[in-house]
Design goal:
By secondary structure, the protein is an alpha/beta fold. The protein has 15 helices and 17 strands. Helix 12 packs across helix 15.
């Protein structure tokens, strides 16, 4: 995994040097322990706040160099806004803000996690640690030289808390989630000459050390299962396709599993319907859905989630050689349904069609959630602030929507219906793989829905959030690892109790 720094927890006390970070709100007050640490410097903070017009607004900071009366070389006062407007998910962001304000040159930093009204409870302190950890992530393993100013803050961060033992216990599960996000980011950031289907499968198989069962199906095995839709996508590449099934059995024996399915197009040229050259390098990220599923399965296994879970990823490379499928070809999916290929660049839904059917018929899951960087159309509709949510089940949809609000990995439900479904009917086969220009993300979801049956299902179109999305307080990476925290929260809140 990439290099990340994990904070440590300690009782609240004055640091002997380095950077000191303290919290306030719109009252510009401090908690009793923080006032004790600041001592006479508290008056100086009030004076500086007035001079700098610092009001304690959420995310704002007051930076004082060489503060008189303190051994710290720098004092940073972070605003958290109005107490009445504070939400639980804000503490993860706060961790990112803390780490982002620590200067790159600093080697030590102490952040006192106490607000004017109360010290942070263990869960909130652990959330701060999660945000701080994710903020330190960077992917630079292929750089041989570093430019001055390139480095982010990598200080050793100590979080001063009222209950250090409780915070460490709460951190155990957050640490597993952090590792899952880092794994997903690493996979998305890797170049396509390094991360091709067989190598992706090998990395997913590393989950065996956490007790995850791994099945890897090669082309021969998939051909035996008659996965003509998935195999058709990869037949133009010299890199053979793979299907990886990951099984975590942490729930009751025999209980139906929850299941997560990821699109893993390790590189997408578009095939015969080739993409423009400009920006094609970004298509190394067309496997962000699969990366999320691997990261999620790591998180569930590492924190020993009390649930049975299946993660499945279809891994292919979409290339335009003489053996590639053509527009006009008709392929037969594992379900027996036939598909007319209209555009070879609408390949992700073909991969998902066979994997969804395989997981549904073999494991009979409680629900299925698939993730895919599927359509540019979803970015036209929603930008990069929400993933598109399509579902045949109102309960699952509501759970995902709330999980998105709780983790700030937001989703927005889009419509499905018979009128859209008609748009993918074919004159020559059971269906075609595109429905035309209009409603592109909807017809793509309708296509996947034809392989779902009556199982509760949700499709997340993460084309706008899976890679090259706007940076945030907890992510400065091109590969975001989006979806790991969302789906882990879904499981924890609704399927482990």
């Amino acid at each position: 995994m990439a290099d990340v720094r994990r904070p440590s927890f300690a009782p609240i006390s004055a640091p002997s040097g380095g950077v000191l970070v303290v919290l306030t709100d719109d009252s510009l007050g401090f908690g009793p322990r923080t006032r004790g640490v600041l001592g006479t410097a508290a008056a100086m903070v009030a004076k500086a706040a007035k001079a700098e017009r610092f009001t304690g607004k959420s995310g704002s900071a007051l930076d004082i160099v060489a503060p008189a009366g303190l051994k710290a070389s720098r004092l940073i006062v972070l605003g958290t806004g109005k107490a009445a407007e504070r939400k639980s998910q804000d503490f993860v962001k706060l961790g990112g803000v803390v780490m982002g304000r620590v200067p790159a040159a600093a080697s030590e930093a102490v952040a006192i996690l106490e607000l004017p009204d109360a010290a942070l409870k263990p869960d909130a302190a652990a959330d701060v640690a999660l945000g701080a950890t994710l903020r330190t992530y960077s992917f630079d393993r292929y750089k041989t030289k570093r430019k001055e100013g390139d480095e982010d803050a990598k200080a050793r961060l100590t979080l001063g808390v009222a209950d250090a033992a409780g915070a460490r216990r709460a951190w155990a599960s957050r640490s597993a989630i952090a590792d899952g996000v880092v794994i997903a980011r690493d996979l998305v950031n890797e170049p396509p000459n390094i991360l091709y289907p067989a190598e992706f499968a090998r990395r997913a198989a590393a989950l065996r050390k956490l007790g995850v069962g791994i099945d890897i199906l090669d082309v021969k095995a998939m051909r035996k299962l008659k996965m003509g839709a998935l195999l058709g996508v990869g037949q133009g590449s010299t890199q053979e396709s793979r299907l990886v099934v990951m099984r975590w059995n942490g729930g009751k024996k025999g209980a139906p599993p929850v299941s997560f399915i990821g699109k893993g197009v390790c590189f997408d040229t578009g095939g015969i319907s080739i993409k423009p050259a400009a920006g094609m390098e970004d298509m190394k990220g067309d496997m962000a859905g699969a990366a999320c599923v691997v990261g999620l399965m790591h998180a569930l296994a590492a924190r020993k989630a009390k649930v049975n879970a299946i993660g499945a990823i279809g891994l292919v490379e979409n290339m335009p050689d003489g053996n590639a499928q053509r527009p006009g070809d008709i392929v037969t999916s594992m379900s027996g349904q036939t598909i007319e290929i209209i555009n070879t660049d609408a390949e992700g839904r073909l991969v998902l069609a066979d994997v969804v059917h395989y997981i549904n018929t073999r494991f009979k899951p409680k629900f299925m959630v698939d993730l895919a960087t599927l359509t540019g159309a979803i970015m036209v509709a929603l930008g990069q602030q929400h993933a598109g949510l399509f579902s045949n089940d109102d309960k699952l949809s509501a759970q995902l929507t709330q999980a998105g609000l709780d983790t700030d990995e937001k989703v927005w439900r889009m419509p499905l219906g018979p009128d859209y479904d008609k748009m993918i009917d074919s004159k020559f086969a059971d269906m075609k793989n595109t429905g035309g220009r209009f409603g592109g993300s909807i017809t793509a979801a309708q296509f996947i829905g034809r392989f779902v049956g009556k199982t509760p299902w949700a499709h997340l179109d993460i084309a706008g959030t899976g890679f090259s999305s706007p940076s945030s307080d907890i992510n400065k990476s091109w590969g975001s690892g989006w979806g790991v925290r969302l789906l882990d929260h879904l499981v924890a809140e609704h399927y482990e109790k």
